[in-house]
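pinging the channel bc i need a second pair of eyes. not urgent but kinda urgent?? the chain im working w is below, pasted from the shared doc
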Amino acid sequence: MKLNGISDNPGSKKSRVRVGRGIGSGCGKTGGRGVKGQKARSGVRVKGFEGGQMPLYRRLPKRGFHNIFALDFNEVNLGRVQAAIDAKKLDAKAPVTVEALVSAGVCSKHLDGVRILGAGELKTKVVFHVAGATKSAISAIEKAGGSVTILNAGAEATA
């Protein structure tokens, strides 16, 4: 086999149809779009239109709602905080805040704050300044000698 002998199979390449080039071409005047109306114009398509039949998105019932005031928290387990302290990514003497957790790589984004969950074990005395914490997390932190300060999450989200 030689490189200069390689070619496509016959009929595999179709030449482009040049529309709107006169009536003799067979695809002139309206250019294959039919006659008049919205769909004959460029860049228009009626999405979800089913020919006058009630569209599917209107036939299905509405359900639930989306709370636009809901806050989105980073959820961090105590075990993950302890692992970051053991790896020297978090300073146990400094208060643990959203900024400290993001810089340590425990959280990826600030979101609306941090909520501490009680899974895992905390062996180090740590002071937390967070938007929220579960009862089990607060008891585990206080058992280890630390403390939790709950911040006003709504004010932090706007600041």
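so Helices lie at 56-59, 78-86, 98-104, 135-143, 153-158. and The first helix runs from residue 56 to 59. — does that match what u expected or am i reading it wrong
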